[in-house]
Amino acid sequence: MNALLFAVLLLAQDAAPPPTDAAPLTDSAPPIDSAPLSAPPANLLPRFAIARVRTRDPVVALTFDACATRKQSNGFDREVFEILKRAQIPVTVFPTGRWIETHPAEAKELAAEAWIEFGNHTYSHARMTRIPRRKAVEQIVRTEAIIAGLGRKSVAFRPPAGAWNRSVVRLAARQHLPTVEWDVVSGDAGGHIGAEKMVATVLATAKAGSIVIFHINGRGPHTKEALPDIIRGLREKGLGFVNVSDLLQRPDAQPVSARPAPFGFRPLRGKGRGPRPAKGIVDENAPT
Question: Using CA atoms, how far apart are residues 185 and 189, in angstroms rounded to an integer?
């Protein structure tokens, strides 16, 4: 090989991009609407909504949704807050932007506690799989700006009613947010399940790496009754408590996909073994 050819090949090798082990996030769904997005995250996030993680660490994450819509502001369950404050348990609260706007004092109170971290639950509790992309982006970005006004930043995105598809996960990832759901349903939404059954359900299903969903917007009347026994029971099972962000960052954490739910889930009822899928428009791009 002559010197000139060798030099050309050497330059070509230097110019080649370095190999990568992970493919970038892709979305087979054509965009419904165009909208400016921020740069994709440096570390690629899962292409699915996370239900829990596999980990050897005996820890669980308790999460509390604070939902409000454009027409319904809901409330604030102060007794739940006080129980958590006394126990100093790390938790992740997922408020909607509207809930923060209609409960500014309570939102600031939550933001003042170091053991609470925030997640993004959209602005008006919109079903993300049923709205145009432009509006879906606005639901996330607008709420993120409201949370920033509290001096906080979201650690994850939780789609209302658990309705998600690849497009929703991708939009959240463009805002550097993993999409996080749950694997343990407390059943507190709407008050259809009493405290005793709620305790039994959570203690029977929670395990290392679980994410448990509760509500703190006044729509779970039995949450305050069940929570002390749930905390005590989980500790007796040898489980500790961490924020969602801490759970996802466990050294051996392996995210597990939530059940595909392009339409979301209805609240858990007194009878039945789990949340029922809600009816809706078929989404051909939902994960299978």
Answer: 10
Beta bridge partners of 93: 64, 118
- Distance CA(178)–CA(258), nearest Å, equals 12
108 C-beta neighbours (distance < 10 Å), count: 13
Count of residues making up the chain: 288
Residue pLDDT, tens place only, 2-36: 443 334 333 333 333 333 333 333 333 323 223 33
In the CATH hierarchy, which top-level class contains the domain 68-257?
alpha beta
pLDDT digits (tens, 9 = 90+) for 168-209: 999 999 999 999 999 999 999 989 999 999 999 999 999 999
Short-list 122, 21, 150, 136, CA closest to 66 = 122
Tokens read off for 141: 């970005």
What is the rounded distance in angstroms from the CA atom of residue 239 to the CA atom of residue 60?
7
